[in-house]
Automatic annotation (TrEMBL):
InterPro entries associated with the record: DNA_brk_join_enz, Integrase-like_cat_sf, Integrase_catalytic, Tyrosine_recombinase_XerCD
Family annotation (SUPFAM superfamilies): DNA breaking-rejoining enzymes
Organism of this sequence: Caballeronia choica
Keyword RNA-binding: no
The organism's place on the tree of life at top rank: Bacteria
One function term, GO molecular function aspect: DNA binding
Protein name per UniProt: Phage integrase
Primary location class: cytoplasm
Span of domain Tyr recombinase: 1-161
Keywords for the protein's UniProt record, in alphabetical order: DNA integration, DNA recombination
UniProt keyword annotation of Nucleus present: no
Cross-referenced Gene3D superfamilies: Intergrase catalytic core
Location relative to the cell: Cytoplasm
């Protein structure tokens, strides 16, 4: 939790940020949205912690189920993510045939899939490509360009409706 900190923006408003260490032991700073901070406060209060973290707080960001204040392992996070996907698959398959395709997609899901989904949602939400690159920690904008699905979809629809040959 000690990676959270506040910084004033140009308008004087305090904004939350999160410093993390990612792949290649590289540190980067991510925007912590107001929505995230509300959910973090709920999570922390569940564990009888103050609503907001403080700089250099030693409490781990992910606490193991059971409430012990020690870091959750990478394997533990993986198991929880896989269980959430399994629960969603069970729900989808219980609703019948129309949902089988979605269930099949979820069977291939992983924690990295969530990262890709976040990148795609940022792009669909018109977040500047440079910001998505920085948030995902990509060295190259060309790596981030793989998340441009919405633009391709819009381009395809526009081309199809605007380029009719009427054969």
């Amino acid at each position: 939790m000690g990676g959270f900190f506040k910084r004033r923006d140009r308008d004087g408003r305090e904004r939350w940020w999160l410093a993390i260490t990612g792949k290649g032991n590289k540190e980067r700073v991510l925007p912590a949205t107001a929505e995230l901070m509300v959910e973090l406060a709920r999570y922390r209060q569940h564990y009888d912690l103050p609503a907001l973290p403080y700089l250099h707080e030693p409490t781990p960001l992910l606490l193991p189920i059971g409430g012990l204040h020690r870091p959750m392992t990478r394997g533990g996070v993986h198991l929880i993510v896989k269980q959430v996907f399994e629960n969603a698959i069970d729900h989808l398959t219980s609703t019948g045939e129309p949902r089988e395709r979605a269930a099949e997609r979820l069977r291939q899901a992983s924690a990295h899939w969530l990262r890709h989904t976040a990148g795609s949602h940022m792009m669909d939400g018109q977040v500047d490509l440079r910001y998505v690159r920085d948030n995902l920690g990509h060295a190259s904008i060309s790596t981030t360009s793989q998340y441009l699905h919405a633009d391709d979809d819009d381009r395809h629809r526009a081309t199809e409706s605007g380029l009719k040959l009427n054969w």
